[in-house]
# Entry
Amino acid sequence: MPRKARILVANMPHHVVQRGHNREAVFLADEDYQYYRDNLFEWKDKLGIKLYAWCLMTNHVHLLVEPGDRAESVSLLMKRVAGRQAAYVNKLEGRRGSLWEGRFKASVVQAESYFLACCRYIELNPVRAGMVRGPRQYKWSSYRERVGADVSGVLDSHTELQRLGRSGAERVAAYKEFVKAGVSSDELAFLSEAWSRNQLTGNSRFVDEIERRVGLRVEHRRPGRPRIEID
# Structure
């Protein structure tokens, strides 16, 4: 069966996921996480990409990014960051070969309906994996900056985040409550299947809109409840 084409669209958020080869660990020490994070921040600026959320897990990464007018800059971002990480790890460990599992996955996100849900999904990954009790305890994600516990200042703003409150304090409080509510099983299944299958994270009207924009037929999800995949 031919693999499903990955769709990238200019000026729209994308939920991007890349796994380690054979699902093996990519990050073994703090220095590994830091190296990837530094390169991510550097290249998102160089390529004019907005970064809304990120989480580095032991053997995979989740990003919520938005390219400018050049949709292909998402691919270039992943090529540059993943390539540098592979060279870094191979040199450190005196090894050769692939660090990553083939092509990255990507799902274009319907911002007005799923932007905040994607942020929450990404930042709660370490909690679902049992690594920490709360997202603030995990230092390799965007949650700490989102709630003011980290002042790195690399996250970009978005209209959906601005709508959470009139002031920064109001927005932080509202987002904390939103994350505290957690991800329902249906939402988890929907978001997981979207990125894992390179599908769109949105409703049928959104799918129709993207089909018109890219000039391609995008397969609609089959009816019924999708299979739950926790990542």
Summary: Residues 221-231 have pLDDT under 50 and may be disordered. The domain at 14-214 is CATH 3.30.70.1290 (Alpha-Beta Plaits).
